[in-house]
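User: I'm writing a short methods note and want a consistent example. For DNA repair protein RecN, I'll paste the sequence; you return only the structure tokens, no commentary, since I'll be parsing the reply automatically.
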Amino acid sequence: MRPRVEEVRIQGLGVIDEAVLELSPGFNVVTGETGAGKTMVVTGLGLLFGGRADPARVRPGADKATVEGTLVVESNGRVAQQVEDVGGEVEDGELIISRTVSAEGRSRAWLGGRTVPVGTLTYLADDLVAVHGQMDQQRLLQPARQRAALDRYAGEDLVKPLRAYAQTYKRHKQVTTLLEELTTKARERAQEADLLRFGLEEIEKVDPKRGEDVELRAEEERLSHADALRGAATTAHTALLGDPMDPSGGTRDVISLLGEARTAVEAVRDFDPQLASVADRLAEAGYLISDVATDLAAYAESIEADPARLAAVQERRAALSGLIRKYAEDSAGVLAWAQASAARLAELEGDDDRIEELTREHEELSARLGELAAELTKVRTAAAERFGAAVTEELTALAMPHARVVVQLTQADEFGPEGVDEVELRMSAHPAAPPLPLNKGASGGELSRVMLAIEVVFAGADPVPTFVFDEVDAGVGGKAAVEIGRRLARLARTAQVIVVTHLPQVAAFADQHLVVEKAGDGSVVRSGVVTLDHDGRVRELSRMLAGLEDSELGRAHAEELLGMAAADR
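Assistant:
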């Protein structure tokens, strides 16, 4: 499903007090008397999609002009994703866009219920709408757009070589970047290699082990306090078992006291089960204290002051601390740094071989890119010739028989993402005139017809879903006007088309006919928009043909026009 504009509400813009445009997916035409405000419809659409805000367009007496549009989009499509990226919402496949312009010139924009910069609407509009009018910046006047449109027009013939070129270009760019880094930063890389080499040699000399710093810190603490540790263990052992060197037994130790307590309780344990339990616990405590005393004796025996070992531990710790201070937080981190640095050093030391290898690949890729770019140019040149001839033929039918459109391809100095071709649409107004860029080779009215011819030829290849034409029929009439209507209807088969016109031959081809009606009380003029049924279309076409809505001749001619257009569609 292609996105489309479903409804537009306009308030306080120019002569339009309040109007609602209900648009069909196909060909929509807007007509009305001179001064009724037809151009305000195009202005409103322009504002909706990020156009310049002119406070002079605000209706006299109004504080602001407001334009609100309802668009139908795919809930999971690209447009919906762009809206979600800025915090807006698409509900049930409907997107609401709103724009206000105050009489003081302030402008605000909303997208999917979220306030956004006006530039966001402009960015979104690139994929939604193409406005063609005498005063508008034409989308297809942008060189990048022209090349993209020509590529789509070329079709399947370009798809395969362009894909192959894009893949080769990507790798070519990667290799070019690597070569530049290796050659232009050789000094920095050599300095980096020296630093890595120095660090690895320093670590290799110390030869740290994982977790060694923790173990050495614990050993240093133990050796530094050997006397205090041994004294504490001995004192605790004496307190538990007594001093074996004291024959008098003057010291009351814990084991002796526990023994006395147990003897006293054991003597009467049979008289009370509760006291028997206490006796068992006293026995258990005695065994536990004996084990602790044994461990204390063994510990005291194992502790020795060893100044030589202490000095060796402190020296080793100092060496490890130096590495940790430079390279990591602990010995494990130092080893990890060494491993990563060894890999990086191997990479740096292989620069010469790498440069030679990359240079060879770069030359091969450059040659391959040249071949693929030439193939792209060949396909584009053929498509450009077909396209120029097709547009020129369309212009002949649009009352520009002497105009000629060509697609000029020039070669850039360097490879780009899409090749070396720079594409520009040019037009010569008559056979003796040189082809000029579109905005210089055609007048405002002619340019709209040129863009119509281009869009008709591009139809189906151009992804823009909505086209707006203002004054596309300026300066033409009769048969040429019929041809303009016919081509707008053809374009509407693949896209939504909105046209402001004063020609009944164009309006007759529309799927939906909107008329801007003007009313006034002598001092204030108000305009609104009405959707016409068949009878209403006959009256409006009669007015446009004869100046009289109820002219029998005009109504007959209007019916004839509608019948001709219906048969043509």
